[in-house]
Amino acid sequence: MATRLYTHPVCLEHLVPPGHPERPDRLRAIAKVLAHDVFDPLDRVEAPLADEGMLLLAHPQTYIHRVREAIPAEGMERIDADTVVSPRSWDAALAAVGASVTAVDDVFTGRADNVFVATRPPGHHAERDRAMGFCLFNNAAIAARYARKAHVAERVAIVDWDVHHGNGTQDIFRDDPSVLYCSTHQMPLYPGTGASSETGAGNIVNVPLAPGSGSDLFREALETAILPRIDEFQPDLIIISAGFDAHHRDPLAELNFTEQDFSWATAKLMESAGRWSSNRVVSLLEGGYDLEGLGLSVAAHVGRLMKG
Ligand SMILES: [Zn+2]
User: Fold this and answer.
1) β-pairing, 77-78 with 84-85?
2) In the predicted model, what is the mean pLDDT of residues 257-271?
3) What is the 109 CA–ligand 1 centroid distance (Å)?
4) Which residue in the list 14, 59, 124, 125 is annotated as catalytic?
5) Strand duo 281-285 + 237-242: pairing
6) 23, 39, 33, 14: which is closest to 303 by C-alpha?
7) What is residue 224's DSSP assignment?
8) pTM for this entry
9) What's phi and psi for 251, nearest 5 deg?
10) Average pLDDT score over residue span 269-293
């Protein structure tokens, strides 16, 4: 078996104004590093567009309709201070969701050991009925709910190491103890949520890190607060909200992680998946805004996934 990689050209057509950090070049930077011959064994598949019904797993119909109506016929439309849509954004969002749920199928049916989904828009800030922070639909939340519905997974763990707190994922699962949501993130920072006191139905583990925190504090957070909770929870699937904006090169935050930290964390979560979830790991791209830092980090992360 292999590591599968999903992306889709339409994700390059989700356009943003000049200077916006969540830009198509992010996916081009990822494609460039993954073109290296060490990544030849990747099983590269074009992301299928999701049925719109999949969105209902995490969002109400009224919200889905509102996003659809906001998509302009031409130009760009701002639907939040940071979140912009353009004519192909709907299909890009469906490709991101489609890849995320198909990745779940892949790991449950044995088509892949693990999967990395390189799509945009990202998802972890999207709440049940609110687009924000570059996110329209919550890919990780939809994938988790899909695993429960389509593959009878009893418990799913989502680990989010993006430098920003995944307020959307927390919002969606705050009263759903079938999903464990664990996040490391810089605090204070956008979106302002993610205090350790926010525990939902006992299924939310937030480990805020002060600006300037580096490798040691990240690894300690994972080893002392998150991995033990995963062992307690015994998930049938581990989903990674893989943002790489905690990298020291990133312009949006002040954490100082290295690409080796992402490789290390990947290995740790693969160990957990080996214990509890038959190695099932689905990793979804979230943030990461310095193109070089993003490329190095994705290479380290995917390289580790490929080691199985
Ligand atoms: Zn982020």
Assistant:
1) antiparallel
2) 98
3) 31
4) 125
5) parallel
6) 39
7) I
8) 0.99
9) -85, -10
10) 98
